[in-house]
Design brief:
Distance between the termini of chain A: 34 Å
Strand content of chain A: under 5%
Helix content of chain A: 55-70%
Number of helices of chain A: 9
Number of strands of chain A: 0
Structural class of chain A: mainly alpha
Largest interface: A-B, 51 and 51 residues
Oligomer: homodimer
Amino acid sequence: MGVPVARATTPRKEPLGTRQRILRAALRLFRQRGYHGVGINEILAIAKAPKGSLYHHFPGGKDQIATEVLEMISERVVEMIQAEAGPTTAEVMRGIGARLWQWMQSTAASGGDGACAVIAALAAEGDTAPPVALAARRAYERIAAALAQRLERQGLAPRAARERALLAIATLEGGGLVSQTMGEPSLFLAAVERAASLCEVASTRKGKPS
Amino acid sequence: MGVPVARATTPRKEPLGTRQRILRAALRLFRQRGYHGVGINEILAIAKAPKGSLYHHFPGGKDQIATEVLEMISERVVEMIQAEAGPTTAEVMRGIGARLWQWMQSTAASGGDGACAVIAALAAEGDTAPPVALAARRAYERIAAALAQRLERQGLAPRAARERALLAIATLEGGGLVSQTMGEPSLFLAAVERAASLCEVASTRKGKPS
DNA sequence: AAGGGACTAGACAGACCGGTCTAGCGCGAT
DNA sequence: ATCGCGCTAGACCGGTCTGTCTAGTCCCTT
């Protein structure tokens, strides 16, 4: 639906082009201030691109940028999930948490921000921009599916697997958010541990999924 | 710092006045779309008040409104925590969760929104509005303190109590957010249960807090 | 060498933003 | 009755927002 033009996966040349620079800048800014909190001029300034380029690559404007950012990072996380070789899903979770942690730290050092909950930042205010909210939902859906798949492989029923996956995501998002707001990075690590324990499947039955 | 005027707790008359209407409208809108996603004109339209009234009651403008909204709801939650009579903190947590759940449901029915993570919505983009971010932080701080107080009363060490309290808050916030984004209300209930289990203190020692 | 299309470049437009200002209403005190 | 003040009312202002438009550059193809 929508977005009639562009969206080149292998456009033609682009060694490391404008399009990517814009997406990266947008990712960073959206994470810091959410959808309505950033203007395209600001994105442009960071990406060092003129307006013409932006609307050439993203004829759908700000919405399209946000949507693609969401797709980009959800894809990245899904890859992490599938790539992590750890035996148990809990281990995988810890691995992802560690990588997100590094990511937060590095961007905090270079840019001055420090959250990871990009999707959250965009999802929280989708009410005025429905396509963005929808994209956020799809992003969660994809990540949850990848996580649930692993959980099922360990013998969990589909419904339970999905619920745990979503709960784990929620834990991470909430942890990242509160951790940033409070200025206590260690809190995020605690949340990661918490999410990981949620992915523990054997031994201690966890009961009441409803 | 700031806000030199007004802030009347018992102004003079006000049977159920403009000031409250503005705060309520702002609360609802901020919850739906975050700080930057809401314009004061919109708040005014819902509150059915003219601009003059707004700047009479809130000379600090939008920032002040957001700040007071944050204070209002954090106070409300703290009261809930202290009022809940349940013996264990876990029970208290469940009680709060249930009340937040009702609140979400009712506002969803009347207004069409459906999140509870107001603080999250405001905290997420405080970068451009530092006083708002600070207020969000204070709000979390107050709630966490109230929660931690109960946990300590059950024998937990201060540090551990605080960490668990913040983690519980994060779980609730994340749960509310993902639940709303995914359009699955039941997810919030699962998150509540998860937060409650985090407040279980005796019996099963939970290990590694760092 | 010449032509054409992808992309860059930024001036511009219209809408809307938060915030200020002056005017006036209504009620309680005197 | 009239005065004063808390509050309402909304026109207005400069600035910023997203998005459009025309020109121009650069490279790739032929």
